[in-house]
Amino acid sequence: MKKLINFFKGMAIAVATLVPGVSGGTMSIVLGVYDELINSISSFFKDWKKHFVFLAQIALGGAIGILLFSRLIESALSKYPFVMRFFFIGVILGSLPLLYKKSISVKRNNKDLMFLLVGLGVSLLMSAEPEGIAALAAAEGMKSIIFLLIAGIIIAVALILPGISASFMLLTLGLYDITLSSINTFNIRFLIPLGIGIVIGTLATVRTLEKLMQRYPGKTYMLIIGFVVGSLMPVFPGIPHGIHIILSTTVFVLGFILIYWLGKKEIN
Predict the structure, then answer these.
(1) At 152, is the secondary structure helix, strand, or coil?
(2) Are 148 and 194 in contact (CB under 8 A)?
(3) What is the residue range of 51's domain?
(4) What are phi and psi of 230, to 5 degrees?
(5) Which position has the higher pLDDT, 175 or 193?
């Protein structure tokens, strides 16, 4: 039963990763698997059989989640931008009470609140309008491969660090639309160098982040909360009108309740 639950948690993390402004790392914290994920990756060779089984469950769920929902999300964002973005905002806000509970459950002091402002500031800076560089990623040749490798390493930091949305990072790099399209069309030439970069970035980042969570948990959680709050601005589509007011409000509430309920069950 636990293996099946881990599989579905992997799907949920993958779907969160596909959503701009929603962090797969935050989702893994809410679902109670973040610490085990970090430990399994950083200590893989100490007990590779045990860690491989767990990572395989999450990875399989994640792969299926991406394949099942990438086309759906791409289509829904195109057809119902207001409704989808208000759902994303509900999900983001629903995670905040849970992250705050995490932050007060560890030793911290009032100075840690400064890191909330740092996280907020960095997130807002990242929301600046990106330059159009998708053409470089779509081009052929070694220059495109090197660019995608570097982009993958940058995206890996967002995958590992809770509060930073990997899809938001893709938006910042100008790669969100082309990445969704590449997943849906199985564009291997694009996905392989990007994936290799993500693997390299993950292996290089995970141990450092694990140490930060162990040594400075209060500061780290405050930083994460700042990132999450800052991610709301680029997701907000404006004030809806007409029937969209009712639909947007409904999905906002549903998104908030869903993520809060999932996280509360795990915490309890």
Answers:
(1) helix
(2) yes
(3) 2-267
(4) -65, -25
(5) 193
